[in-house]
Amino acid sequence: MLAAGLAVVLLAPACGGSKKASEPARQVAAASSSAQPTPSGAVSGGPGAKVFADAGCGSCHTLAAAGSSGRVGPDLDQLKPDKATVARQVTNGGNGMPSFGDKLTKQEIDDVADFVSQSAAQSPRSVAAQFKPDDTKISDCKQGDSRCFEQAFANMAYREGPKPTLALFSKMMVTDPTVKVCHRIAHAIGAGSLAHYHGNVGLAFANGSAVCWSGYYHGILERAFTGVPRPKLATVARRLCSSKAVHRNQFTLYQCVHGLGHGLMIYTAYDLPFSLHICDQLQDSWDQVSCTGGVFMENLQTSYGVKSPWLRDGDPLYPCPEVSERHKLYCYLMVTSRILDVDGGSWQKTVAWCRKSEKGWVATCFQSLGRDASGRTGQNPKAIDSICHLAGDMERECVYGASRDITSMDAGARRSSPYCSQVAAQLRSYCFNGVGTILGGFSAENAGRRSLCDSSVPKAYRPDCYAGAGATAA
Out of 147, 273, 337, 424, which could bridge 301 as a Cys pair, Cβ 3.0 to 4.6 Å? Predict the structure, then answer.
């Protein structure tokens, strides 16, 4: 019965009869260039991908590795059928799907079954894209059951809206160990909120917050790409962050275009070159570069626990040295997350790797070290100081990165200002400059930026905050 059930779900009425090749191979080729890295361990391509394209499977099925978005049959990325199931269905057909047993050789069937099963298995489980409301409540969830909390918080956001949901979420991040590991739950709240507002990205952004490193905003964008055909990604991406609600300040706009990068990587099953290609088609250079931040964050430390093919265990700096110059900034600003994962969390080894960065990008790597020192210690000032001290002559860059991360985490200087006040005296000016770079994004007006610095930074260091915020003399 299980096999029969799987057969029904895998099949689609009148699917797969076309011999016309699909577009994905040409699109990916167009998105790639000599300046792009090469993947490690990717399953896309090869004989199975060719069979999938030539047999017209993509006209009916969604499979990210093939770049297909057919909706007649089931979404293979979500279904994740095993090899035997795929081979049986392709061979026998049924329930409206034609048999390919007499159209494909046994080797071709084996190849396509390998391709589909392996590609689908590596596609991430996206709680944001797959969210469907049900009866799960937060009170139903037990310690350690993160999926229950993801669903329950998304349900609450869907029914009650983001404001009460995010307020409860912020409280439980402090009191509940499972909720404290917050980013995926924040993604889920974003997805539920977008459904609450019937797909209106501007309204969902306007009523949300940047709690938990802006995971709420990322979830909105991740869900917004659901069902969008690959050839239309660039058009949709340009539109999603264009509303007045998103443009109310630079911080919110950054979260939107940064979230686009996360959403693109998850949607394309971690196709790094294609995601960067879409970022490059956004409105202006600021949007384009900000989008790459989401791409590289998702590549180096994925939201859904899969390993991107654009990583190498023997070279944790990869792909930063191989991407084009215009894409290096955010790659190096995120790279220490990957280095720490590869080197077992060793801060000393991470410092050594940062010193191996390309000329001109060493300081940026140490800013990434500060970001991770903040994130991985729960923004503990003394622990951050201890880590940044390992950076030697690059300690100031580490402190700068930490101050920016704390300010971004809190969407304000509630904790970053006291942090900067307690670092070594020679580091404070640069630290408060880092605080200003984030605070400046919360206001489009010079007076507003100065006011944010005035209300949270000691008087002696306000000029440093003003400079970081881009605020001129009053």
Answer: 337
Domain assignment of residue 15, given as a range: 2-29+40-123
Number of domains in the chain: 3
CA 275, CA 320: separation in Å to the nearest integer? Answer: 15
Q: What is the pLDDT of residues 413-432, one digit of tens each?
A: 999 999 999 999 999 999 99
Query: 148 and 292: one domain?
Result: yes
Answer yes or no: do 238 and 254 share one domain. Answer: yes
**With 0-12 CB in 10 A as exposed, 13-18 as middle and 19+ as buried, what is 316?**
buried
Rounded to two decimals, the pTM is: 0.72
Which tokens hold the place of 356? 């191996």
What is the pLDDT at residue 84?
A: 84
Query: What are the Cα distances from residue 349, in Å, to 113, 352, 381?
Result: 42, 5, 21
Both structure tokens of 361:
């990008």
Contacts of 331 (CB under 8 A, 6+ apart): 292, 296, 319, 320, 323
The owner of tokens 């904790």 is 415
